[in-house]
Amino acid sequence: MRRGNSVTASAPGKINVSLHVGPLREDGYHSLASVFLAVSLREEVRASLLDEPGIQVVLSPDSTLDVDPETIPLDGRNLVHRAAALLASHCGLEPAVRLEIVKRVPVAGGMAGGSADAAAALVACNALWECGLSREELAALGSRLGADVPFCLLGGAAVGLGVGDELTTALVHGELHWVVVPAAFGLSTPEVFRRLDALREAEGYAAPEPDSVDAAILAALRTPDSHVLSTLMVNDLQRAALDLAPELRDVLGLGESLGALAGIVSGSGPTVAFLCEDTTAARALADGFSHRGLVSFVLTAPSPGAYVHP
Ligand code: C5P
């Protein structure tokens, strides 16, 4: 909904409860079969009309993350900037917009924070400029910005094939409880994929083309049964992330010793996500991390896809 000269939208970060990585494709991406789950940690983008043409991107002081400006360029390389420019050119508009990002999802953390920014920017600008594009049309544009943008637009839970952009909604008839532990450092997604390729090559392993996900995971999500789900979670990128950042093993071990049902590296990492039995268990786990000097977030899932705030 556009009210006056500004629109605020948000989009969720994600956890992959299952991620199978296939071979490297000619376009530099890997084919995937994944189950995406959107979580209640949401990026927000406030878009306001400017008098002068141009796209200005700023970080909001309301951000809950202490973001090092070095890690987030605010110029034409920023995904929010690129999303606004792409939508404007698609709709034949000259952009004159200020975009304020409220950062909550860890930067370079494996939770699709950048893709969530792009998804929120697309939805905010679509409303601000009254472009009238559908979610599907925005997803087609968004997939040119990042493989996870279509899922951040869709939200909820979904099976992702292709590079993660061919999505089918999955059902979750309840709430799942998570604690995520961000790392003090980032991991480069391409580097994690490259490390997996190198580990596999050293073993002489040729990954098959992944074309489906485990039906048992979808059944466990549907109920949802966190105990069953915790025994089925799998992430092919985890070993590569652990190879690059062995200290994550300690975080995984600590969370499980403090009562999590299971821990998993989120996407390409280094954020680690722990599935908990219920909200009480999640809060107790977060307290346990806090006593050991680790920051964590208590989250629920599924969270809706990108939407404009009323
Ligand atoms: O699309 P996005 O910018 O998020 O991807 C970052 C990088 O991660 C890609 O350039 C590619 O190296 C790697 N990637 C991949 N296969 C995917 C998704 C990402 O190899 N399905």
Describe what this molecule looks like in 3D:
The protein is built from ten helices and twelve strands. It is an alpha+beta fold and 310 residues long. It folds into two domains: 6-171, 2-Layer Sandwich (Ribosomal Protein S5, domain 2), CATH 3.30.230; 176-301, GHMP kinase, C-terminal domain (Alpha-Beta Plaits). The strands form two sheets. Strands 1, 2, 3, 4, 5, 6, 8 and 12 form an eight-stranded mixed sheet that branches. A four-stranded antiparallel sheet has the order 9-10-7-11, with helices on both faces. Strand 5 and strand 6 form a beta hairpin. Helix 6 runs antiparallel to helix 7. The radius of gyration is 19 Å and the shape is globular. 49% of the residues are buried. The site of cytidine-5'-monophosphate has 12 residues, from strand 2 and helix 5. The active site is at residues 14, 148. Its EC number is 2.7.1.148. GO terms for molecular function: 4-(cytidine 5'-diphospho)-2-C-methyl-D-erythritol kinase activity; ATP binding.
